[in-house]
Design a protein that fits this description.
binds thymidine-5'-diphosphate; Rossmann fold; about 210 residues; five-stranded parallel β-sheet; single chain
Length: about 210
């Protein structure tokens, strides 16, 4: 079987992390070898970079610095984990990938999108997902969920609501640009329903 690279994207609080393990289990039950990962992070080196990105004390971090850190974490993850496993025929499911950089640093912070695209190409060696699931939820609702579920609250969560709204609009634009790769799912529904919809999409594309 050939490898397949699936990414989950969406605004903060869209519920990606809840969906990823049940999806992985589902694909395993269909006989696929599945590996899950998340960004930023996923290797020892990338996790160290994640600490720098997230640290509340790093409030003076410039968006360009942040961009390059995300890309460095990703370059390591692609080389160390994603490419070798895809070559071995596994299904890789990643909680965020390159589209997060376009949505957050590009649409959110206003870093030039063409520049980001060139840098992404360099950092990933041109590796693109086969399928990207956009778990779509309003920025306001996402932030509310994020605050009420009591998870880790980091430097990036503290950005203003307007920023998160730009990110959500950015995701819609990215999905519209490549409709064959993206599938948008309304993530304001109960999580069991979201999982069912995800499985339907994956049934069509993977198994
Ligand atoms: P995380 O705690 O993993 O949250 P989430 O569950 O929302 O994924 O934090 C990741 C944060 O990093 C999230 O706010 C999105 C942001 N991010 C970027 O800004 N650019 C990127 O390239 C990536 C991968 C993430």
């Amino acid at each position: 079987m050939s490898g397949m690279f699936i990414t989950l994207e969406g605004p903060d609080g869209c519920g990606k992390s809840t969906q990823i393990n049940p999806l992985a289990d589902y694909l395993r039950s269909k006989g696929r070898m599945v590996f899950t990962t998340r960004e930023p992070g996923g290797t020892e080196i990338s996790d160290q970079v994640r600490q720098i990105i997230m640290a509340m004390k790093n409030t003076s971090m410039h968006p360009r610095t942040e961009l390059l850190l995300f890309l460095s974490a990703r370059a390591q993850l692609v080389e160390e984990v994603i490419r070798p496993r895809l070559a071995a025929g596994e299904v890789i499911i990643s909680d965020r990938y390159a589209d997060s950089t376009l949505a957050y640093q590009g649409y959110g912070h206003g870093v030039d999108l063409d520049v980001i695209r060139r840098l992404l190409d360099f950092a990933t060696g041109g590796l693109k997902p086969d399928l990207t699931l956009l778990l779509d939820v309003n920025a306001d609702e996402g932030l509310r969920r994020r605050q009420s579920c009591g998870g880790e609250w980091n430097r990036l969560d503290a950005y203003q609501l307007e920023f998160h709204r730009r990110v959500q609009v950015g995701y819609h634009k990215l999905a519209a640009l490549e409709p064959e790769r993206w599938v948008t799912i309304d993530a304001s529904q109960p999580s069991e329903m979201v999982q069912l919809l995800i499985r339907q999409v994956v049934d069509d594309r993977v198994v």
